Amino acid sequence: MCGVALLAVLRSRLPEPVRHGLAWASGCVQAVAVLWALSTVAVALLGPVDWVRSAWSGSPATARDAVTTELPWPPNAATAPLVLALVAAVLAVAARGNASWRPQALTGALTLIWATALIVPAAFELPYTAGLLAQLLVTAALVAYALRSPRLPTPPAPVPLVALCLALLTSLSLAFLALASRPATLSVLATLTVLFAVAARQPRLGPVASPASLGYATALACAVGASLGWQPQQTALLVLVVPVAAVLLAARLDVAPTTVSVEVTGATAALLAVGLAVTDPPMLALVLALCGVIATGTAVRENRRPVGYVAAALFVLASWVRLASWDVGSPEAYTLPVTVPALLVGVIRRGKDTRASSWTAYGPGIAVTLVPSLFAAWGDTHWLRPLLLGGAALAVTLVGARHRLQAPLVLGGTVLALDALHELAPYIAQVAGALPRWAPPALAGLLLLALGATYERRIRDARRVREALGRMR
Hints:
Elements: H1 2-5, H2 16-46, H3 63-67, H4 80-97, H5 102-123, H6 128-148, H7 158-177, H8 182-199, H9 206-227, H10 232-239, H11 241-252, H12 256-277, H13 281-299, H14 307-325, H15 331-352, H16 358-361, H17 363-378, H18 384-403, H19 406-434, H20 439-453, H21 455-471
Helix pairs in contact: 2-4, 2-5, 4-5, 5-6, 5-7, 6-7, 6-8, 7-8, 8-9, 9-10, 9-11, 9-12, 10-12, 11-12, 11-13, 12-13, 13-14, 14-15, 15-17, 17-18, 17-19, 18-19
C-alpha cells in the first residue's frame, strides 16, 4: 500500500528527477510483493498434477486440500489475492494514461487478474466443487475475452493470444484437478472440448485453440473408456474418433498454421491409439489398418500426397501384425503382399517415365521378397523353398535380360547364384573330401594359369559385360 501511495507524486509539482525516482521505488516495491505472491500461484497451478497418481479416488473437502496433496500451502498467504489484485489495478490505470506501453500494461494486468482468480478458491478454502466452477469460469472468461478482443477498434496485438494461453494453462490445471472425481473428469473434459472448439472458430486463435480442443477430446475418449470399464485396446478404437475429426477439420481449413496444428494433434492421437492397442495383436492390426484408412483420407488432398506412403506402410504393418497373431512364420507371407503392389507401382511409373531407373521402379519390390526368402532358404533343411526361390530368381533374371533391365537381372542373378551355391555346397564338400589333399591347390594353380594366359581377353570380356550392364536401365 505504501508503494502504491508513492505513485501519487506523479501528479505533484516535484522536480522531474524526484518524481522519476519515486516512481521507480514504487515499481520495485510492487514487483517484490508480486514475487512474494507467486509461490501461492505456483501451488494453485501445479498442485493438481499430483491427482494423476490417485485419479478417481474421491473428492477432497476444500479447494485448498485439492491443490496441497503434495505441495504445502505457503504460510501467511491470505493477502496474496489482495496484493495481486492491487498491482493489477495499478497496471490497468497506468495503461489508460500512457498509450506507448498500453499493450504491455494490459497484458500484465490481465495476467495478474488471472493469478488472483486462480488462487482465490484455495486461499479462502472454498468447497472443492466451487473451486472447479471458479476455474472453469476463469477459463471461459479468458476465452471470451480472447474472442472479443479482435473486434475492438484498435486491439493490442498480444492481448488476445495471451488471454488464450492463460485460458489453456488454467484448463490444464482444471483438468488435473477434476481427476479426483469421475463425474467431474467427464464433465470438465467435455466442457473444455466444446469451449476451445468455439475459440477455434476465430482464425487468429485457431493454431492454439484447435489442438487444445482435439487434445481434450482425446482425453475425454480415454476417460469414457475407463469409466465404462473397457480395456486399453478397446479404448483405442474410441480414441481413433479424434484423428478422423482432425482429418475432416483439416480438409475444411484455409489457414495453414491451424491446419498443421490440427494434423499434428490428430497424428498424436493416432499414435496414442496404437500405443493403447499394442498389447493385443489382433486389435493392434485393426487399429493400424484404420490409421491407414485415415492417412489415405489425408492423402486425397492435393498438397498431402506424400501421406500416401505412410498409409501404405500402415496397411503393410497391419497385415504383418495380423499374420504374426496367427503364428505365421513364413517370410513370403509377409513379403509377397508388399512385392505385388510395389511392382505395380513400378510398372505405372515406368509407363509414365521411360527414363526412370529399374532400380527405382522394380528394385525395392524384387528385393523385399527375394532377400528375406534367400536368408530363410539358407537355414531351411527342406528342398521346397530353395527350389521355388531358384525358380523365381531364374524367372526374374530372364525377364531382366529380355527387357534389358539392370535391377531384375542383377538381383535375380545374384539370388540364383547364392541359392545354387547353397544347394551344391554339400556335394562340393563331398567331392573335395574324396580328392587327395594336393588336388585342391593344384586345381587352384591351374585356374590361375588359365586366367593369366587369357588375362587380356578376360579384361575385355569384363569390360563388355560392364558396358552392357551400364546401357541397361
